[in-house]
Amino acid sequence: MKYKTQKVAYAYFIVAMGLFAIQVLGGLLAGWIYVSPNTLSELLPFNVIRMIHTNALIVWLLLGFFGAAYYLVPEESEREIFSVKLAYIQLAILVVGTLGAVGSYLVGIHGGREFLEQPLWVKFGILVAAVIFLVNVSLTFLAGRKTAITNILMMGLWLLCLLWVFAFINPDNLSLDKMYWWFVVHLWVEATWELVMAAILGFLMLKLTGVDREVIEKWLYIIVATALFSGILGTGHHFYWIGTPGYWQWVGSIFSTFEVVPFFAMMSFAFLMVWKGRKNHPNKAALLWSLGSSTVAFFGAGVWGFLHTLHGVNYYTHGTQITAAHGHLSFYGAYVALNLAMFSYAMPLLRGRAPYNQVLNMASFWLMTGGMAFMTFTLTFAGTIQTHMQRIVGDYYMDVQDQLGLFYLMRFGSGVAVVLGAILFIYSMLVVRREVVKPGPVVKDATVPGE
Amino acid sequence: MSELLTKSRARNVFYGGSIFFVVVFVALTAQSHRHIVEQSTAGMPLTEEVALGKHVWERHSCINCHTLHGEGAYFAPELGNVMTRWGAQDDPELAYEILDGWMQAQPSGIEGRRQMPRFEITEEEMRALAEFLRWADQTDTQNWPPNDAG
Ligand code: HEM
Ligand code: HEM
Ligand SMILES: [Fe+2]
């Protein structure tokens, strides 16, 4: 840690990890209800649990991004953060908003647009927090050195906050509602968040491999160019069957196919930088998460996204368990793993100590990644059967679901692995204060001091 | 490549290209907006009642169990074509009666079957909800879903 105000990131990361725990526990409970449907059905119905699961996910990922920005903008800009106080106020607003949202969901007060169920006052709170954040990081950024990493990060953050405006636009016309809803959902994960991902990945590669900044930054511009060139019109892959014109079937199919490119490029970039690396950084866990993130993002978003993105395929798979399979692996690879990479890298520095307990951390990587991969496979099998029986044969939805019990049981099992992995991750980050497994001489000697 | 594509060139391509695609996207969505209002959803007027029905749908967060035009949760059946499935698409009174009967019968309490909660919904709201579902069903969704199973 070079600048003392970077420390605010610490608070963001802690809160993010807390919500991560809530998110996966909520997911596990939702997965259990698929296995044993009468569980809590009168007390806490499935829809409320699902809301908590998805909202906790989105909020903790955003908190992770905000924390990452507060960590890396000072270092890149070579400046202290404009105002530490504002950063904490922003966090406080978000914490109050989150607790308020969860509380009101539990008593049955919520909106009804998927992922945007927050009560209006919480939505406004998020808007205020976003404005504070933008002011705070922008003033830091403008006063200091500008790099491609911060250029791209700032652009991603600005655009994603601006898109939040569409969370307030809810026309009475259902088809219009759906069209504008995707401006938040798709243009977040397949456009603006990709810029944030590329910037953070670039920063991590810079620090962990010691490759020339020039090389990294050129790569970044190419990656984000392919992301936006494909992702913006790629929104069309959600405009096939919601009342939008038929030409989206071609626009969406063609451009969203190209969305695979930036994910492939990020994966290639990460491996190439490690290959060319000039530094043997001691934080192997952060490196594992970085490489893992870009790889799983390529599979989850790229491969599983392409699987159902052509309109001829999507006509049959739309809104089945195939979608859930893709949603899980893509979010996990691109954004969960990326955030955990950043935490793994920054937490030891924020706490001013060596990166202890990398072995536990790396074990948690394999446990979580293995669990998410298995979950994706079971849901893909379930979705394939569902697509065939329901969409092709024409069997009734509930009759088809009755045939899928085994897959849902296996999904629950993989969920247990993910929860254990998440707990192990948090434990290795926060609890253990000494090296549990002693490193051998190779790792020990390789320690070019971390920066 | 390294000579032809310098960092600043890559950056300019990124900014210029992005602006281009944003402009195209905005133009196409403006056209789609008009298409939705004037054509694909124009088969039935968007009355106050339909709008109320949409609010009822949202207040109870039906979307976090069901899909509607294929979007939402995958825990319960597709409802974008439910009125067709019930044979009630052209009969508002029948639509209301079947829907009301269904909602009153929840939760089924059958062991091992997914449960739908019981919602407090007035008669006016229930009629509006039925109209909303009929309104959604008449949308031109490019022939999706492939069959009545949804
Ligand atoms: C990290 C990036 C991505 C994330 C986090 C992500 C996440 C998601 C999620 C959560 C949904 C479900 C939305 C809903 O509730 O209806 C979805 C749908 C979809 N995604 Fe992605 N996605 C990503 C990238 C991609 C890419 C690159 C492609 C195409 C190559 C793609 C293709 C699709 C398609 C076609 C659907 C609609 C599925 C349906 O018709 O039911 N996604 N995505
Ligand atoms: C313990 C592990 C997990 C379990 C058992 C689990 C289970 C579930 C269940 C049952 C649903 C509802 C699906 C439906 O609508 O029928 C769901 C939705 C969702 N979960 Fe998870 N989940 C877990 C972890 C995660 C993780 C780690 C992520 C992020 C990477 C995630 C992201 C999502 C998303 C984005 C949706 C909405 C999907 C969509 O609309 O397509 N879940 N999850
Ligand atoms: Fe998308």
TrEMBL record, chain A:
<feature type="transmembrane region" description="Helical">
    <location>
        <begin position="181"/>
        <end position="206"/>
    </location>
</feature>
<feature type="transmembrane region" description="Helical">
    <location>
        <begin position="55"/>
        <end position="74"/>
    </location>
</feature>
<dbReference type="GO" id="GO:0020037">
    <property type="term" value="F:heme binding"/>
</dbReference>
<feature type="transmembrane region" description="Helical">
    <location>
        <begin position="86"/>
        <end position="108"/>
    </location>
</feature>
<keyword id="KW-0679">Respiratory chain</keyword>
<dbReference type="GO" id="GO:0015990">
    <property type="term" value="P:electron transport coupled proton transport"/>
</dbReference>
<keyword id="KW-0408">Iron</keyword>
<feature type="transmembrane region" description="Helical">
    <location>
        <begin position="120"/>
        <end position="142"/>
    </location>
</feature>
<dbReference type="GO" id="GO:0009060">
    <property type="term" value="P:aerobic respiration"/>
</dbReference>
<feature type="domain" description="Cytochrome oxidase subunit I profile">
    <location>
        <begin position="168"/>
        <end position="451"/>
    </location>
</feature>
<feature type="transmembrane region" description="Helical">
    <location>
        <begin position="359"/>
        <end position="385"/>
    </location>
</feature>
<dbReference type="GO" id="GO:0016966">
    <property type="term" value="F:nitric oxide reductase activity"/>
</dbReference>
<keyword id="KW-0479">Metal-binding</keyword>
<feature type="transmembrane region" description="Helical">
    <location>
        <begin position="327"/>
        <end position="347"/>
    </location>
</feature>
<dbReference type="GO" id="GO:0022904">
    <property type="term" value="P:respiratory electron transport chain"/>
</dbReference>
<keyword id="KW-0349">Heme</keyword>
<feature type="transmembrane region" description="Helical">
    <location>
        <begin position="247"/>
        <end position="274"/>
    </location>
</feature>
<feature type="transmembrane region" description="Helical">
    <location>
        <begin position="218"/>
        <end position="241"/>
    </location>
</feature>
<keyword id="KW-0812">Transmembrane</keyword>
<comment type="similarity">
    <text>Belongs to the heme-copper respiratory oxidase family.</text>
</comment>
<feature type="transmembrane region" description="Helical">
    <location>
        <begin position="286"/>
        <end position="307"/>
    </location>
</feature>
<dbReference type="InterPro" id="IPR023616">
    <property type="entry name" value="Cyt_c_oxase-like_su1_dom"/>
</dbReference>
UniProtKB/TrEMBL annotation, chain B:
<dbReference type="InterPro" id="IPR009056">
    <property type="entry name" value="Cyt_c-like_dom"/>
</dbReference>
<keyword id="KW-0408">Iron</keyword>
<feature type="domain" description="Cytochrome c">
    <location>
        <begin position="48"/>
        <end position="137"/>
    </location>
</feature>
<keyword id="KW-0812">Transmembrane</keyword>
<keyword id="KW-1133">Transmembrane helix</keyword>
<dbReference type="GO" id="GO:0020037">
    <property type="term" value="F:heme binding"/>
</dbReference>
<keyword id="KW-0479">Metal-binding</keyword>
<dbReference type="Pfam" id="PF00034">
    <property type="entry name" value="Cytochrom_C"/>
</dbReference>
<protein>
    <submittedName>
        <fullName>Nitric oxide reductase subunit C</fullName>
    </submittedName>
</protein>
<feature type="transmembrane region" description="Helical">
    <location>
        <begin position="12"/>
        <end position="30"/>
    </location>
</feature>
<keyword id="KW-0472">Membrane</keyword>
<dbReference type="GO" id="GO:0009055">
    <property type="term" value="F:electron transfer activity"/>
</dbReference>
<dbReference type="GO" id="GO:0046872">
    <property type="term" value="F:metal ion binding"/>
</dbReference>
<keyword id="KW-0349">Heme</keyword>
<dbReference type="InterPro" id="IPR036909">
    <property type="entry name" value="Cyt_c-like_dom_sf"/>
</dbReference>
